[in-house]
Amino acid sequence: MPHVPHPVPICLVLNDMKKRKFMQLAVMILGLMFAAIIGSIIYFNSSFFHAVRLVRAIKSDDIEEVQRIVEKDPASINRYPTVAPPFWQSAMNRKDMYPLTQACHQGNEEMIRFLIASGADVNCNDGYTPLSVTYRRKNDNWYAVSLLLLQNGADLHYKTEYSGGMESALFDIIQPRPLGNSTVYVPESNEEVFNSFLFAVKNCSRDEVNWDRLFRGCVSCGYERRGQEIEYLLNGGFCSVNTPDEEGRTPLMYAAERTNVQTVDYLILNGAKIDAMDNTGKTVLDYAKSEDIRAVIAEKNKFK
């Protein structure tokens, strides 16, 4: 009679399948662990990781740690420290910056000098540049830092996430210092602003800038702060005292709205029209928010 093999018990088949699956799972876990170890070794020795640490040290004003990181990985100095896209940074209310840009944001001149000497790109751009951040924040030493950046090749024609070209630099220069978290607000030096303004104006062609818009920007800051810039632009023939914006608002309307008596007085003395109307028919008096402004306009009206 032919030999008939005995059937293998089902329990043995199941056990064998379990062993194979267990071995496959174990191999997969070991492979993942090995990949994680290799990935960690690569990451913790990458310029990206060192750039993250570098920016953290800059924020802490830890110059010794900055020097150690740069010495270990010089490439980290020009590495952007995040992979998060700009829209995600905005959603999380954060802004990651290149190491040099972060140092300029902090206003740490010693650190800025070290980074530049170590090969940092003075025109690195993450939506801001080292020079744009310096002009806009106006830390106590902002003027010295701006000169240092310019001496090392910083470009005044930078493009940022809010604007671009020489006009952007000029607007950044005239902007007042932000209020910040300090309980005592100390305004920036008007002379330093004017010197920076003159340097930028002399290094651009007239066709690069909407001078009337820049003039209205200076007027909005007030004569007390930007009087030299206002006079320079008007007396130099860069702009007109009555040129309106797209909504028909004249520089005098800007000044009246911001309750700057000195600016209103200066503009009227230099030919600003008191009876001008914007596109909706509003006059300078409609923009005036204080009795002092209304009094100045009424006084000037007597001599029309």
Structure description:
By secondary structure, this protein is mainly alpha-helical. It has a domain at 210-304: Alpha Horseshoe (Serine Threonine Protein Phosphatase 5, Tetratricopeptide repeat), CATH 1.25.40. The chain is built from 16 helices and no strands. The protein has helices at 10-44, 47-59, 63-72, 86-91, 99-106, 109-117, 130-137, 142-151, 166-174, 190-202, 211-221, 223-235, 251-257, 261-269, 284-287, 291-301. Helix 11 runs antiparallel to helix 12 (223-235). The longest helix has 35 residues, at 10-44. It is elongated and about 105 Å long.
Give the C-level CATH assignment of the domain at 210-304: Mainly Alpha
Instruction: Write down the overall geometry.
Output: elongated
- Can you count the beta strands? 0
CATH 4th-level superfamily of the domain at 210-304: Ankyrin repeat-containing domain
Helix content: 55-70%
- Counting helices, strands and paired strands, the structural category is mainly alpha
* CATH topology (fold) name of the domain at 210-304: Serine Threonine Protein Phosphatase 5, Tetratricopeptide repeat
* Helical stretch tally: 16
Task: Show unreliable segments.
Answer: none
- Assembly form of the protein: single chain
Question: Which CATH architecture of the domain at 210-304 would you pick?
Answer: Alpha Horseshoe
Let me know the largest β-sheet: none
The helix-strand sequence is: HHHHHHHHHHHHHHHH
CA distance, first residue to last residue: 133 Å
Radius of gyration: 31 Å
Mean pLDDT: 85
Fraction of residues in β-strands: under 5%
